[in-house]
Amino acid sequence: MIPQADARSIPTDAPLLDALAVRGVSRRGFVKFCATITSMLALSPELIPQVAQALQSARRPSVIWLPFQECTGCTESITRADAETIEQLIFEAISLDYQHTLQAAAGTAAEQARQDAMRANWGQYLLVVDGSVPLGGAGFCTIAGRSAADILVEAARGARAIICVGTCAAFGGIPAANPNPTQAVPVSQIVRDKPIVNISGCPPIPNVITAVLVQLLTFGELPQLDHLGRPKVFYGESIHDRCYRRPFYERGQFAESFDDEGARQGWCLYKLGCKGPVTYNACATVKWNGGTSFPIGAGHGCIGCAEPGFWDRGGFYDALSVTHTDNLEEIALAAGAGVAVGAAAALLARKKQHAAARAGDDGAKGELP
Amino acid sequence: MSGASASALAAIAVRIERSSGNLEPLLHQIRHALLRLLEEQVGSCIDLRSLPLAPGEQEQLLAALGTGEIRAELRASGSSDILETAFPGVWVVTHRDVHGEVQARFIEVTFSPEILCSPRQDVAAGLLRLTARLSERKELA
């Protein structure tokens, strides 16, 4: 066992290993932690020793977390306050200097803590934002008498990087859904001169949030990002690409309703509105609830919550092929073709996606294979 | 999630669907890793999370590998099982959190999994503790 120390005696710039030791994590426990994190990061298991080596000496970064127009689901996702998890361990390993939902301090003391942390770590702290930012006028989201946009601009100035947790901070999310009464925008529309990592999802997978923080700690650099600013390691493939129901799609075996024989057999949910083919996230592999399952595993299609504008992209139960069309005859004809329905639906979807892409609809970037 | 609910989730029966076709290639990969271990003395590790296995396929894989002579349990930040399979040199290492939820599962092809070895720093710390204890006994005597 690593010699333990009193939590109060650990300075904020102490190595991560020391911070974990306070939690009673042994060296073998630390290796286990590194193995799990390496797996989460989708890195080769051969890299576990290097990750352990880097994390041993990594310093605890100062993190300032600003919640704006959000539902606290993202915070809930990562904290999972009812279990001691890897996510909680990493929270012990960072120096969370401001998070007004979690911290005990309130009012002037809370704002002073944020100002102090910013001053002490200027240019070095990580700024985490969840929730969108309203531009529709004062009063929509005001903290300590200041607008969310004002606080964001000030905090971003001294940040090393910004991590947008959740679809609201990344793309506007539900607050920005039509008719967008608060004129909500994502962080990237306000801050343009800092590196931004978007960890989208409503909420994001907690392990993904943790893994991005660990990647920063381990390698001292941001992960490789896709064209929407999301870490490619988690958002590089569509839900459909990694879905265990994919073989049913290939064979043209689809559930037609949530209680038919196809649903009972676990067939593909494409025709019940699954947005897996145009949604990029790691739900199918990392999964939820400690790797237990994910929505498709529970019998419900993906709703596409990690993509821009997911709330305004038609009904959750409309098949992708008909989301942007009124031509129901097309899919009906395809459905009548028996086993050929998979290919027919795929061709139809591809046609629609090309049309959507031409119309500048970025959410439809996915190509059905 | 409470420990009780985690156990309940784990207890729900999983329907074994038609194989996604990953099982056979995986067994071949393990065979090649064993060859490499014998010929080049180089171990390998497969992260089962990285594979799109259908429900039940992981259980099929574990059944195909069987159980061998050694079963070790690590108690650190939750439990971990280190099992030798029926094929010596092929180990299944499962890491769980404090509530028994699986956090990661690896197939290690090695003579002995690294995590079983005592960390050098812990051995050094243990040596100091034992030396101190012997000194105390000597003083008491």
Keywords:
heterodimer; A: 369 residues; alpha/beta; Rossmann fold; Cytochrome-c3 Hydrogenase, Chain A, domain 2; 2 domains; two-stranded antiparallel sheet; 38% helix; B: 5-stranded antiparallel beta sheet; disordered N terminus
- The total strand number of chain A stands at 9
- Biggest sheet features of chain B: 5 strands, antiparallel
Cα distance spanning the termini of chain A: 51 Å
- Roughly how much helix do the residues of chain B carry, as a percent range? 40-55%
> CATH superfamily of the largest domain in chain A, please?
NADH:ubiquinone oxidoreductase-like, 20kDa subunit
Apparent shape of chain A: globular
What is the total tally of β strands of chain B? Answer: 5
Q: What is the CATH architecture descriptor of chain B?
A: 2-Layer Sandwich
* Number of helical regions of chain A: 17
What do you see in this structure?
The complex is a heterodimer of chains A (369) and B (141). Chain A has 369 residues and is α/β, with parallel strands linked by helices. Chain A folds into 2 domains: 61-235, NADH:ubiquinone oxidoreductase-like, 20kDa subunit (Rossmann fold); 239-364, Cytochrome-c3 hydrogenase, C-terminal domain (Cytochrome-c3 Hydrogenase, Chain A, domain 2, Irregular). In chain A, 38% of the residues lie in helices and 10% in strands. Chain A has helices at 16-22, 27-40, 48-57, 73-79, 86-93, 107-120, 148-157, 167-171, 206-219, 232-235, 239-242, 246-250, 261-264, 283-286, 320-323, 328-335, 341-358; strands spanning 62-67, 95-99, 125-130, 133-134, 142-143, 146-147, 159-165, 184-185, 196-199. A 5-stranded parallel beta sheet of chain A has the order 2-1-3-7-9, with helices on both faces. A two-stranded antiparallel ribbon of chain A has the order 4-8. A two-stranded antiparallel ribbon of chain A has the order 5-6. In chain A, helix 3 (48-57) packs across helix 9 (206-219), helix 4 packs across helix 9 and helix 5 (86-93) packs across helix 9 (206-219). The radius of gyration of chain A is 22 Å and the shape is globular. Chain B has 4 helices and 5 strands. Chain B has helices spanning 3-11, 23-40, 57-65, 120-140, and strands at residues 44-47, 71-75, 79-84, 90-96, 102-109. In chain B, a hairpin with a 5-residue loop joins strand 3 and strand 4. Mean pLDDT of chain B is 85; it is low at 1-7. Classes of the chains: A alpha/beta (369), B alpha+beta (141). The A-B interface holds A 1, 3, 25-29, 31-33, 35-36, 38-40, 42, 44-46, 48, 80, 82-86, 89, 242-244, 246-247, 265-266, 284-286, 289-292, 297 and B 1-2, 6, 9, 15, 17-18, 20-21, 45-47, 49-50, 52-55, 74, 76-78, 80, 93, 95, 97-99, 101-104, 106, 114-115, 119, 121-122, 125.
